[in-house]
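dude i think i finally got it to work??
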Amino acid sequence: MTETAVLDLLDRVLAPWVRSLALQPVSVSDECATLRLPFSGELRHTGGVICGQVFMAAADTAMIVAISAALGEFRPMTTVSLNISFMRAVRKGDVLITARVLRMGRNLVFGEVELMDEEGKLAVHATTTYALIN
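look at this
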């Protein structure tokens, strides 16, 4: 998928509040997608760290892009499970989100997502399952 195709996909399928995260494509292949979450102080809660809800939405979104790239197009899908481990607090800096399709079945897709802080350290790890609809 091209950068333009990814941005079009994000614009068409995301809820407005998720679009406001301003996720940007970095690279997309048949096996994985990497997006950049630009830092904004508005993403932090009162403890000064980026909220877990932001990371969950970013991981879910990156996986949708990775699955769409693997399929060659967007198909309706729904998240069945999103299991996430917050391993390091992120207080500042852009975050890179890399989503990998681990197994593509006829109806279910299994994936893994890593979110790296500005120093390249693993901050969040997620495993996912999606159901393809239709």
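The first strand starts at residue 24 and ends at 28.
im so relieved honestly
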